[in-house]
Amino acid sequence: MLLALLLCYAGFTALCLSTDRHHGELLHSKPTPRRRLGLRVSGWLLLPGSIWPAVAVAGWSQGLVEWCAVLMLSALLLVLLLPYRPRLALGLAGAGLLACPVAAFVTL
Amino acid sequence: MKEGFRQAMAWLHTWAGLIFGWLLFAIFLTGTLAYFKDETTHWMQPEVQAHPLDDARSLTVAQAYLQQHAPDAARWFITLPNSRDPGLSVMWQDKLDPGKRGNFVQKVVDPVSGEAVQARDSKGGEFFYRFHFQLQMPYPWGRWLSTLAAMVMFVALITGIITHKKIFKDFFTFRPRKGQRSWLDGHNAVGVLVLPFHLMITYSSLVIFMSMVMPAPIMASYGDDSRAFFSELFPATDNAPALGQPAPLQSLVPMYTQARAHWAGGQVGRLAVNNPGDVNASVNIFRSGSDRVAQDFGSVVSFNGATGELLRVGGGQSLPTLVSGTFYGLHIGHFAGPMLRWLYFICGLAGTAMIGTGLVMWLGKRQLKHARTGVMPFELRLVETLNIASMSGLLLAIGAFFWANRLLPASFAERSDREVQAFFIAWGLSLLHAALRRGRQGWVEQLSCAALLFAAVPLLNALTTDQHLGVSLARGDWAMAGFDLTCLGSGAFLAWAAWKMQHRTAPQPKAERAHRLNLKQEAH
After folding, report:
1. Chain A residues within an 8 Å CB radius of B291
2. d(CA A19, nearest CA chain B) in Å
3. Chain A residues with CB-CB distance to B340 below 8 A
4. What is the pTM of this model?
């Protein structure tokens, strides 16, 4: 479940950064069209991609339920962190991505 | 036309949400607590000790206990302890004349010593579970009302998606400390981010009660005999009658092992023994609901109790029962491990918060018009009173329920009913208090009181039992320790909420606010 959580959170962060408003708030600049596209594509790849580790660990029925739960909770966490601790919200996504191989090694 | 449609939906969302919001808040909050039903029961019956799980030992102990105390019973039921509920529960039905139902006796047995545990009489988490769909009303009115509320909830969800058209565009937006704007942001955030859960939980509640809500297909095929439908749906394990020839019952452990082998190692939830001690005794072993997402009530392995011979293996769900079983399983979440159970709990709280913020917004919007004069019309005052009593009042009542569990003497007659009375008395008092105290004062006082009740639960537990946090944590009894810690956390959250409410800026009239906005824009 951990790996799916990290991937979902990173995916949502990428999607969030791909909007002009949030990119401006978080990084104080407007994203270039190329960067916006890159963030959007990686976000949309990470979210469905996180189904795989969830299903690989827990099987289809349980895995999909866990994935849905993790999907909702990672978005909730990100949205609640953004206004209060924006740097932490970004840092978590980065640290999460870095920790992915470790999580994959431990859980898969 | 399009604007007209959206406005109609907004109207429906607003009014359906208001009328049923108070009830839905209670249903969602108690339903959320019911995800920790077994843990709550464990906390409320601290006399039941947690032991390392050993099904074979538990089964042997239960069989010996029943053999000694109820050898002539018509039926035995054994519910094995699991990681959430440490109690080994045995129940038997007395043998009576044919045509009459023998009454049931239930005991909790210690799975190590084999003695009955003298636990205090308490409904435990079962109270929240029952309340969330029966609403403490006589059968079947509570079920009807909660099903109606579920339908309204479904309508409110769909109309909400149409009304708040910007929810997907503003997906990541939450702006705190901006008054009414923040409430709307919060309402949208917990609504849209947890939308899959809201849709699932609301739709599945309708599926669970579908035979009640939409009986037409059953009546069309079975006429008035709805019993025939149910006996076909749940093939009542058709057990042989007693022959009256005594024969000793075989040990249940090998049957248990054989049943698990049939389910590829699946867990056993419950065992039923019909006519123990008769030559025609039968043993039905029911699979635990915690094994799979989809509930399957037909997963039963039956044995002849006197010979140990395998009689029948139930199973194999048809597609419709698989679909409805999946919705059922998703709703009650028996399959969820500790992590997923917490996620369920958080989702439930998000649903509760969505309803709560909606109610607060309804009032806040209309209060703005009267902020300058400071006089509120009766209907707004009524909504305010009901808001306070249904939200902070319910929290107070839950706290009072836990306190009553620890403070009422164990020897009290009908003790479990007294606990429930304490819950409703506290709720009633909070309504009275909300009617007497003006808006914000009412909120602050009730929230602070609830915060105190919850935060002091670990202390109360330490003073009245020998299971305080030091003991439960050291022993690894996470249900007990987790309950204490969660109450402490809830107390801290409620204290924060009370503090926020006390130091909130008063709602400003619209004109003044617009004026300030203009000034701001001019300054830029």
Report:
1. none
2. 10
3. 1, 65-66, 69
4. 0.90
Structure tokens at B495: 């204290």
Which residues share a beta bridge with B246?
Answer: B278
Q: What is the pLDDT of residue B371?
A: 76
Give dist(CA B71, CA B266) in Å, integer. Answer: 30
CB atoms within 10 A of CB B404: 20
Identity (one letter) of the amino acid at B276? P
Put simply, whether B196 touches A (Cβ < 8 Å) is yes
Q: For the CA atoms of chain A, what is the radius of gyration?
A: 14
The string of DSSP codes covering B438-489 is: -HHHHHHHHHHHHHHHHHTHHHHHHHHSS--HHHHHHHT-HHHHHHHHHHHH
What would the pLDDT profile of B132-181 be if each residue is shown by its tens digit? 999 988 888 899 999 999 999 999 999 999 988 778 888 888 888 888 88
Q: Each residue of A36-72: pLDDT tens digit?
A: 999 999 999 999 999 999 999 888 889 999 999 999 9
Q: CA B29 to CA B399: how far, in whole Å? A: 13
Measured distance CA(B426)–CA(B497) in Å, rounded: 20
Nearest to B75 by CA among B277, B311, B224, B231: B277
Which residue is listed with tokens 């609301």? B202
Low-confidence ranges of chain B (pLDDT < 70): 1-3, 96-101, 231-238, 505-524
Place of tokens 């808040």: B25
Answer whether A82 sits within 8 Å of B174, measured CB to CB.
yes
Report the sign of the C-alpha dihedral through residues A27, A30, A35, A40, in that order.
positive
Q: Do B172 and A70 touch (CB under 8 A)?
A: no
B417, B49 Cβ separation under 8 angstroms: no
Report cis status (omega within 30 of 0) of the bond before B377: no
A29 — contact with chain B (CB < 8 Å)?
A: no
